[in-house]
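Summary of Year 1 activities. Much of the first year was spent building the evaluation harness for sequence design. The harness presents a backbone, in tokenized form, and records the residue chosen at every position. We chose the following record to illustrate the format because it has been used consistently in internal testing since the harness was completed.
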């Protein structure tokens, strides 16, 4: 089904399957795709974010299940706490899925990773559809689910245009300056390969 995603500035993308079939104003796309479903989002529609610390967040941190909060808390476990937990493959797989979901909730559509050595993590990430960008070495900055909190320049994925894969995010802010000031926790929707994979309830 053809869906038009539009932001509060009137910018819009028409998506069919996993592809962007048109980009322009809501007025233009509404006229040329009169039978499309229209999703109007508050804020601004942007290419999705690249998180530079994919390895650290997915393979070197354990994201507790909410049911484990009483025992493990809610923040990712690293270092000695992770070593003491010693997750098995099932726990690593579930942690990676939760980690990706938390990235998606921050408008992230791709993560920079050294080759992932943990097969359970690698397989879980592949199944989520999160893009993986190769990297060499460890990046500077502080690993964070919010790329704006990492201390590094924030990178967006390539601009979305007709014929490209539908990977983008919507942030409930007025413009890019407010996004930089308030961070990626303002995300209201994330689309990966044409699928709405995160929506703030």
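For this record, the design step produced the sequence shown next.
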């Amino acid at each position: 089904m053809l869906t038009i995603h539009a932001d509060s500035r009137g910018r819009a993308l028409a998506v069919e399957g996993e592809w962007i079939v048109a980009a322009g104003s809501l007025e233009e796309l509404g006229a040329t795709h009169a039978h499309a479903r229209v999703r109007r989002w508050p804020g601004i529609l942007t290419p999705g974010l690249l998180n530079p610390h994919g390895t650290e967040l997915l393979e070197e941190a354990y994201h507790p299940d909410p049911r484990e909060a009483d025992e493990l808390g809610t923040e990712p476990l690293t270092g000695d706490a992770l070593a003491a937990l010693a997750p098995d493959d099932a726990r690593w797989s579930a942690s990676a899925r939760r980690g990706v979901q938390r990235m998606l909730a921050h408008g992230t559509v791709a993560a920079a990773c050294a080759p992932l050595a943990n097969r359970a993590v690698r397989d879980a990430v592949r199944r989520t559809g999160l893009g993986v960008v190769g990297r060499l070495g460890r990046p500077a900055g502080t690993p964070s689910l919010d790329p704006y909190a990492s201390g590094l320049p924030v990178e967006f994925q390539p601009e979305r245009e007709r014929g490209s894969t539908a990977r983008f995010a919507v942030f409930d802010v007025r413009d890019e300056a407010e996004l930089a000031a308030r961070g990626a926790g303002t995300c209201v929707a994330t689309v990966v390969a044409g699928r709405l994979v995160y929506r703030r309830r």
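Residues 89-104 form the longest helix (16 residues). Quantitative recovery figures across the full test set are reported in Table 2.
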